[in-house]
Design a protein that fits this description.
alpha+beta, seven-stranded mixed β-sheet, homodimer, globular
Amino acid sequence: MTTSTAAGLPQISVIPSLPIAESIQVDTRGAVILNEESPETRDSRGIYLPNYVEPVSHIAVDIGGSLAKVVYFTRSPEPPNSPSIAATRGSSVHSDVSTPSPPSPSDLTPSSPITKLENHPRGALTPAVLENHNGGNHGPVIDGLPALNNTTFQESLLRRVSVQHLPGGSLNFERFETEHIDECIEFLQILIERSAQLNGVSIEEMQSSVKIMATGGGAHRFYDMLKTKLHVEVRSEDEIECLIEGLKFLSLIPDEVYFFSDELIHSVSHPTAATCSCQPSHPPTAQSSPQLSSAGPSSQPHEHNGVNGVFERPSPDPPKYAVSFEANPTPQLPCLLVNIGSGVSIIRVDEDGSFERVSGTSLGGGTLWGLLTLLTPATTFDEMLALSEQGDNSTVDMLVGDIYGQDYGKLGLKSTTIASSFGKVFKKNGKKIKFSAEDISKSLLYAVSNNIGQIAYMNAEKYNLERIYFGGCFIRGHAATISTLSYAIRFWSKGTKRALFLRHEGFLGAIGAWIKNIGEEHVDEA
Amino acid sequence: MTTSTAAGLPQISVIPSLPIAESIQVDTRGAVILNEESPETRDSRGIYLPNYVEPVSHIAVDIGGSLAKVVYFTRSPEPPNSPSIAATRGSSVHSDVSTPSPPSPSDLTPSSPITKLENHPRGALTPAVLENHNGGNHGPVIDGLPALNNTTFQESLLRRVSVQHLPGGSLNFERFETEHIDECIEFLQILIERSAQLNGVSIEEMQSSVKIMATGGGAHRFYDMLKTKLHVEVRSEDEIECLIEGLKFLSLIPDEVYFFSDELIHSVSHPTAATCSCQPSHPPTAQSSPQLSSAGPSSQPHEHNGVNGVFERPSPDPPKYAVSFEANPTPQLPCLLVNIGSGVSIIRVDEDGSFERVSGTSLGGGTLWGLLTLLTPATTFDEMLALSEQGDNSTVDMLVGDIYGQDYGKLGLKSTTIASSFGKVFKKNGKKIKFSAEDISKSLLYAVSNNIGQIAYMNAEKYNLERIYFGGCFIRGHAATISTLSYAIRFWSKGTKRALFLRHEGFLGAIGAWIKNIGEEHVDEA
């Protein structure tokens, strides 16, 4: 039974008697992305679901090569930090995606599991036993809470616990380094313990009400550890299936999905080597079909957006487009999902939701991070991104102009086109030239991003898919990366395909694992 | 007028009255690839053309981002160093492609232009003026030859000059670093001067008989320098067109083209992480379609070659196939040409010879060399290749097994599959682990090669082309690179497409420029 609300948002109702739900159903009416006090948690902002009721507590964990992502639902009748409910609603003009820098894996380390819980007090898990006691013990047990001396935290927890029978609550998001999986497990232990105490039930009762849905490679690798240390039920879920379920769910949350509109923001900076006074700097890569030499008459002013069909070639300095958020999302299948983690998986999703991992590349986030670790002083990925923003790739990249000395007009290549990434380094090294960390970072960030974009595009073309979603923790709202991917797709597709991004890009798998469990939950109840 | 020789080799005759020859015609009857005294010149071995007559001396120069390649024709009635005419004829069993290591750009430096001429005495250019003097002055002028005190050299030159009116001669190949283009120009100067002296004509007469066909980016960049310093006519030729002409020409030379046969040479070394006792180590990359999970039952002995359709995934340790040489080449169009220089160009060639640059990537030879320059002590590309042979990529690459702890059977991935190239480096660096140059080299060589193979394959698939030629100076007969590319193509195409290589891989453009001129020459004479 589906109806539309007055606002036009999709309403999905729970149908309890289906055997295995083919479509996972969560009540997303009125879902909003929450503001956070701290700007570092750009992609970990909670999602408030005012109409959702979770009888059993589920924690989803997606343990990848580098990061472990955690999703869990806690109850509250109204969103935390009211009245400012909505996060950036987005606009079609001059939105800057990159304002907050999300936490890098290393940034997460100083924040202990206990601190995490204190910083994000959004309620507790709900033990099933309380569901059976209508009007049962609501009073929280405050005494005996370990290391809990934050009054505000206690009060907010109390408030949430006391209204536990009303619908509504938040999806919460956390990240840990896989290399420090013990910290993740400690976090979950504390979460479970505190929830038990706040709800006034024994730890054993709480544990029997908690189920961990584990996905990602680490679901296999750490399965025993999770069971042994947390004493809860652990279920492994298929990684690719979870990614797709998470995508389908997230893409329905208003203002979750964003993309570059066709409105170009003209950059105030002028190009160093352009032949046209009105165009921003466009050093493209030597990849595209020569038909695009219609980009040729560059001395005349011309439009740069896809509307007129003229695209400059992809480059580390792509044109600056406005960010648009998908305010009224509709189901977005078929599509291609490009999940960029340590490595890259490319998954095709058909209109009916069936999916297939069709491609990928081992040149992913882990490659870039590894290279920049050895080549720059940066110790975190966010430091590397910051370095790249200051860099000039032309000191390390071999450009067409370096080889030809002029535009290679017949091929439609410009002198600032990159012929060989990092191609200047080999030649110069005989002269003991030192290359700056900034230039190295910019060159390699662009090279890796553009390569992913190229392979993604080729797969989208092969399977005739217009929508290309980019997930994974690689992007992090970094403007240059988003620009590179967006622009590459628009360029090679001549404007017919679109790159789409998600605020909770890194949590697709974890959300999917959580969602999958919900469907089966209602089956169990029937 | 075309006829076949008894040997079945194509015979192409010169038709002098065509306006612009659509097909470039060079008499390739009996063409053989020459042996060289020095093993370093694997890809620079001359090609002896016993039936060709060149009235005007042409030098072709292809100046790329890193290397300048030179091709010129000199006369001799019989091949140098007879009787051992043929280079490796090739066999289908246990051919080792990588025996001689070709000179790297740095290796070329110690060899001065004069030394080059002395090492490869294959005659002199022929000034046009002698063609006009039937029975003119044949006697060489020995006195006054600059710095020429090598008797053997003199004698061989004399022998060649004296039979200059008979057909036959050799195509000669040289390489220089673009960064030291002055050395290339000096070489050409000496070649022209000596040719003048040996033929007994003035330098001005010689210069009026020489034409330089210049292609590559440097044809534009160094055009003025070539004209000014050499005082000869210089013509620029389109780079892509020359690559294709060179490919068409070379692919007709017997034993020029080689590829991996379907006969697998079983490696004696056993895999470290394989689940099958009969298979070589196969750490594949996480790229392929899950349909290939038919590679699943790995505990049973099974065939590894494409004949039975079972392919292990691409890896830095691909199966060792025998090298086969194309002894009786036939025209090989349509095809895809993947030219790997500093950067990569991908060109599609139709059956009628028309071509289009359809794609490319900036992650090419220059990228790998640049990265390894900064990450290893190696100073030449051949040193880097040698390092890679000793390396173990699993110390720097993140494998599926590292993430999952076991085989990801549903996806058809093995635990030794590479999920993220260089993906272990970021994690470990917090612990100050030093990575060996060998491991780094192997990881990156594989990553770059496999990425090129993947993009090449996708384009071959898109344009429905079975033959994929790899050109450019990147490959250098290096077994691991050839294996990686060959195997990747065989794997993704399920055996339907083939990677093809050329001995003179780096000289496609130069040969093409030379060929182009020949066609127009005969037009001029008509």
